[in-house]
């Protein structure tokens, strides 16, 4: 009991000092991206319903109410880019680049990037182009001749967490989580890009390292 | 007449070559890609695993963490993450259920890349498979809480090792695009 209290007190202090009480996966993680088209909420990578495929999900612009979602859009000046390392050195060997233009999401790759690192140049022409699904419509899905599937548009935020109770714990007004807890992300949406690719396109020997970046062109 | 016809054809062919023959519906130029070659050089956000930046990165480093490429993160952030992990545990962190001590665990976390298996089950952690991907349904918060507060057996600090929210507010789809429709 004493130890738990000490831990909670320490946690509260650390989070207070850290200035970032919000632990929400990556939602609004830093001042420079908070509330912007570049603010990533989450990255998911998993086997598709067809296990020969890998699914990449990149979500941005979190914590949107239905009203906000109705007028939300992607930004033509923001690239959403999946970085894929298939050699174990944490340097990207392949990228999947997602660039919005005039109502459509253009998906490039998986392809070797022009250069590694923070600055990215759109490589070649799009593998698949998918119209962004309007709010309230059934998902619009595009599939390339090479078997790449793509979706872009608003979705329910798949992240779940009792963030409010966590706030109380680190704030020192609660000693632990409730059971059952309450999902603080219930009823909120994100802008999502989902790309499913045949695993054969990933040149993998079994393991990948994946990270998601956003970046702007001005 | 014939000569004029050929002249028109020739002019049109020339115009097509210059990409300006808009009147001839039979000539469909290859659609140009509006983004090819476009450069995006201003870094924004960066994420590998869930919750890393918000839990382990201090306020002073939050912007820098987003613009540090993963191959350089380890040496820059491991020690800082270890300090944070110990602070969260009142300095009493020993090992987690994976058998990793504070240095080992933060050594893994400091390089913020999501590990993914292309040959087997993908999961953040399911009791057997560790860090082989991340499903929409994975309870990454409980996994994180157990690894941070649960000690070597996962049984320490039981009020802190689960938020008791173990699923999403809407069921996921069994087929593409997998995520649920927006609210």
Structure explained in plain terms:
The complex is a heterodimer of chains A (218) and B (183). In chain A, the strands form 2 sheets. A 5-stranded antiparallel sheet of chain A has the order 1-2-10-9-8. Chain A has a 5-stranded antiparallel sheet with strand order 7-5-4-3-11, with no helix packed on it. Chain A contains 3 helices and 11 strands. About 5% of the residues of chain A have low confidence. Chain B is mainly alpha-helical. Among the domains of chain B are: 27 residues, no CATH class; 98 residues, no CATH class. Chain B has 6 helices and 3 strands. Chain B is globular and about 60 Å long. Chain B starts with a helix and ends in a 34-residue tail after the last helix. Classes of the chains: A mainly beta (218), B mainly alpha (183). Chains A and B meet through helix 1, strand 1, strand 2, strand 3 and strand 6 of A and strand 1, strand 2, helix 2, helix 3 and helix 4 of B.
